[in-house]
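Justification of computing resources. Each target in the renewal requires a structure prediction run like the one illustrated here; the chain below, 262 residues long, is used simply to show the kind of job we budget for.
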Amino acid sequence: LLMNEQNLSSDNPSTAVKTEDALELHDMSPKERRRYKWKQEKEKLAELSFWRKVQYILMYYTWKFIAIAASVVALIFIVQRVYIATRPVALDLVLVNDSENTDFSDIVESMYKGYYEVPDDARFYIDSSCILDPSEGITTQNSSYYTELMSAFSHGSTHIVICDSPIIDYYAVDGYVLELKHGLPEDIWEQVSDRLYECDGPVEDSDYYAIDISGMEFTKEAGIRLEQPYLCIPTCLDDEKREIAFNFIRMVLDMEEKAPAE
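Resulting structure tokens:
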């Protein structure tokens, strides 16, 4: 058997060299192996012409280059998403059943920035695309709007919903809309007590769930086309987000500024 191995080695010198290299590498430390392999690469490259070197490098390192590029792109994407997610939200508002008001978002954002000091990197989420008539029930055409509006009333991120009375009636009865007699600060309550919309809801001693904003300067400037627009607040907001909603109402009522927007 030993003789056969010797004969095989003598017949195939490259096999013998590979075997010797493997034995030599086996006895090396990881650092020494890297140096040895790099030395071999340099020796291979030294024997090649310029264009052969280019071809060899591209062939040998292509996947490494792709892996590095993919890692950089992924890192940039993650950093960007983290940055966006950590930026403060100045205002999150939904306007329902006034989808043709295409300038609404820009107008309201400009008005809010003019009324409050808003951080330069603050985000505004103002959506006027939702169209919904609860009397029609859930259909294939409006199911996405039901989902969107339920999210606005239940996820704790939307500060204000501006809509018509059927929307108030539909969501207030199940407790999704803030009851205003108990929920509004006293300074706002005094200003809107004659503009409240009353409907059936879960609160026994009071049924005020929205503010009538028809004819107000804000409504005219924002181009709201609803015949009878109402402003309401989702019940699920935490104290910080609820204060943002209150500050928006103060802007709509053109009250004296109480606090800068967060």
